[in-house]
Structure formats: C-alpha cells, structure tokens
Amino acid sequence: MKIENVELRRVRLPLVSPFRTSFGSVSEREALLVHVSTADAEGWAECAAEAEPLYSSEFLDGCELVIRDHLAPRLNAAGERLTAERVAPALAAVKGHRMSKAALETAILDAQLRTSGVSFGGYLGAVHDLVPAGVSVGIMDSIDRLLTAVEGYLAEGYLRIKLKIEPGWDLAPVRAVRERFGPDVLLQVDANTAYTLADARHLARLDPFDLLLIEQPLAEDDMLGHAALARLIQTPVCLDESIESARDAAAAISLGACSIINVKPSRVGGYLEARRIHDVAAAHGVPVWCGGMLETGIGRAANVALAGLPNFVLPGDTSASSRYYAQDLTKPFVLEDGHLRVPTGPGIGVEVLPDVLDDLTVSSSDIRF
Ligand code: OSB
Ligand code: MG
What we know:
The chain has helices at residues 60-78, 87-91, 98-116, 120-124, 143-156, 171-181, 200-203, 223-232, 246-255, 271-283, 297-306, 354-360; strands at residues 3-21, 24-38, 42-47, 130-132, 134-137, 160-164, 187-190, 214-215, 237-239, 260-263, 288-290, 339-341, 361-368. By secondary structure, it is an alpha/beta fold. The strands form three sheets. Strands 5-6-7-8-9-10-11 form a seven-stranded parallel β-sheet. A four-stranded antiparallel β-sheet has the order 3-2-1-13. Strands 4-12 form a two-stranded antiparallel sheet.
C-alpha cells in the first residue's frame, strides 16, 4: 500500500465539564488527528497525547515533530510494501514515542481495512456486538458535587464507576459513593501514580469498600513497589501507565505487580501490541479492560472494537460521546442499556463529519510521500 499523503490536524473540542485527575485539570481536549491518503482509501486515527506531558512523557507538539521528522520518513522508505503490520518493525529503531507510532499505525490500518472491506472488530477478533461502558469521574470540589455527578451517570445507565483519587481525595469520596449508591455498584479508583509504597497502610483502608481494583497507585516505573503493595492491600492492583508493551505486561504479571490490566492502544504503540497484551493476559488468567484518553469518536470507534475481544471482561472507560463532548467529530456513540455498539463498517467504521472537523480545526499540515 503506497501512502500518498499524511495530514496532521490539530483540533480543539470543549469538554462538557472540566476533568480533573491527580496530575491536572483540563476543560478542553486538544487532539492530533492523523489522516492518511492512499490511492484506494483514506485512514483516520487520533493521537492520544495531551497538550502537556503530564500523563506520560508524550505531548502534542512533540508528537507532531516526531511523526513529521522521524516516523513518516521511515514509512516513506518502505514504499509500496508498507502494510499496517509492517509499521511497527519499520519504526522500531525510534525509541519510545508509542502514542505517535500508534496514531500512524492505526491510520494506516484504517486505510488498509477500508480497502479490503474489513472492520476493526473483525480484524482484531472481537466476539461481542456490544461492550459494557464504564465512566471515569474526575476529582471534584466537593463530595456533594461528586454524588450528583455519579447519580447522573448511573441514571444514564453506566455499568461501572471509576473515581479519580489523590491524597486528600480518596477514602471520603469512596465511602460517600458506597454509602449513597450501595454495594452493588461496580466501583473502582484510579490514582494516576499519586502515591508511594509508604502509603500502603492508608490505601489498605480502601479494603472494606469492595472495590473492583485500584489503578496505577504508584509511579509508572515502580513495578516492585506495585508488587509489594499488592501483598499489603486486598483491593486488586491494576496497571495503566506502567504497561507500555506485551513484554511489560508479562513482567508485571510474573512479578505480581498487577492482577488486572488497563489496555490503552495509544499507550502501548497501537492495536497490534494491544492485542498481544490481551493475549498474554488471557494466557495468565488476568482480565483486561479498555482504557480511554478522552477520545473523540475517531479514537473511540477503534477502542470499542478492541473492547469486543474475549478477555476484555471488565467494563471499560469507553463512555458515550456525550460524557465528553456536546459535538463529537463523528456521529455520537450512544449508550444502549449501558453498552456501546461495536462498529461493523470497514475500518474504524465511522465517518468524520467534515463541517464539524473544519470548525474545530486549529491547524493542519501535510507530509507528502
Ligand atoms: O488514567 O485512565 C487514565 C484520561 C486522560 C488521561 C488518563 C486517564 C484518563 C481517564 C479517562 O481516566 C478515560 C476516558 O474516559 O477516556
Ligand atoms: Mg488510568
């Protein structure tokens, strides 16, 4: 497949409400779209990096630069023989930059699958038409506001609540949500690396609340710390930031650093590596779920397809478009009885709305092949 052009487009979408995590607060999503043109098809993908390098070391300006100056030229060199499966090997010499690599691979995979009329779900091996949706609820100014937000999400049908936590906002919000909504609500927390192993006794105080999991309590490079913590608390430890590859997943599982994995294709370099993590975890009896990065409909479509694989047994952070945006870049993803439907059309199975895209675009540039 010969690529003719790669367009990089920066878009800015206002969030319906600010989203605060232990590493910062955002009120709009600035995203980088990668749009690949071949003779036969167009492919779209969304780079999950944020404007600032706070979730991980990657950030939007850096992604644009590395795609333009280091990644795209390596794909160009592959010429006609390029396929989505050959993208990662062609880019392997470049260390890291997984979100940038994932965006390129995904856009190329979209074009390839549109050419052959195969859906992402079909290609990846999805076995479900509908996937259960959870929702990630940010840190709020007060417990009252949090309870109002959670009540709204439960009324909409979300099947699992994830509370963002940090020191000073952990036991009280979890206790309040449990007391108000009862023991049957599937509830989990995400610390985004905000604690250290010295907080183990404090985190053990979450044990009585019967959480599904605690996500990434410690620093991303603290595999041994997570293994030690997992022995000191009853809540299952789930890793997000620490897992950047299937090899990381195998190591974390072997060390006892996690018993559940949040799979974000963007964080691990793309959907092919994400599927390998799914497979490694399945072989160890470790359940996985699909994380999110406040994606627009473009990134969401592919995530929902991945979430249809058999070992994605926990509800994901794959929420409806309306949880994030009043106007999405695609036809909105909507909840159907707490589930999102896996797209079945070719490629990611959704179309970008051209007028909306133009309205929300802040800049664009072309890389000619
Ligand atoms: O840690 O899972 C995370 C959003 C941005 C960056 C990191 C994370 C998140 C979320 C929201 O938790 C997931 C979503 O709804 O897309
Ligand atoms: Mg997380």
